[in-house]
Amino acid sequence: MKHLPAIILAMLLPSAVGGQQEPLPDFELAQGAVERGEILPLAQILRLLEGEHPGTVVEVELEYSDGTRVYEVELITPDGRLIEVDMDAATGQVLKVEEEDDD
């Protein structure tokens, strides 16, 4: 799978943890979740994705959806389509695949 030099990882997680005054940066929240075994590392998610949906990754977001952390990966397929693949961040299971519109 090809990766652009700078994969965008927009982490949309809760902004405050444990009553702290200053919210942790998003990457620290994600790193903590990986260290605690709550989610898979992004590199592992991308390897799993490559097996099912090869292409060039253009954007990655980590979001909550119905109480589950979900990696949303946008990629350009070998035939030039832009798709979004939602994957369970804890298991790597593909939850949804959508073709993105040009609009």
From TrEMBL:
Gene3D superfamilies in the cross-refs: 3.10.450.40
- Which InterPro entries does the annotation name? PepSY (IPR025711)
Ranges of residues in domain PepSY: 40-98
Record organism: Paracoccus aerius
Q: State one Pfam family annotation.
A: PepSY
Protein's name in the database: PepSY domain-containing protein
